[in-house]
Amino acid sequence: xxxxxxxxxxxxxxxxxxxxxxxxxxxxxxxxxxxxxxxxxxxxxxxxxxxxxxxxxxxxxxxxxxxxxxxxxxxxxxxxxxxxxxxxxxxxxxxxxxxxxxxxxxxxxxxxxxxxxxxxxxxxxxxxxxxxxxxxxxxxxxxxxxxxxxx
Length: 151
Prior knowledge:
Blueprint: E1 2-6, H1 11-22, H2 34-45, E2 50-57, E3 60-72, E4 75-85, H3 94-108, E5 113-116, H4 123-130
Parallel strand pairs: 4-5
Antiparallel strand pairs: 1-2, 2-3, 3-4
């Protein structure tokens, strides 16, 4: 398996792969708004500090990570916004292999850490714990949105 760095030039294959994974169980995300999907992928892959990595088994993309490089006082970090493995290839060790290759890539490029958010109620939570990620217990995620009845 080979790790490859992707760019905005790979937008169409990224969109196809991303929607194939995230519109199915357990996510069931509705990415039917093509303009919104296109803008989201551009946000993640089209900026100067974007970093998209994919794992390929021959010509087949089997895993994808999209995020950005953040320069921080403790060193440069990779903030992962999206990480997924092709649905049909999950539970076969590909995600773990992908993380190992991402970590090797980051180390070779002098990045110091990976940060990401996930929910406790999804399978990804246990996947990250199993792969050595630790949970910040004092950090809280906040959100605010227009039209929220609480605002």
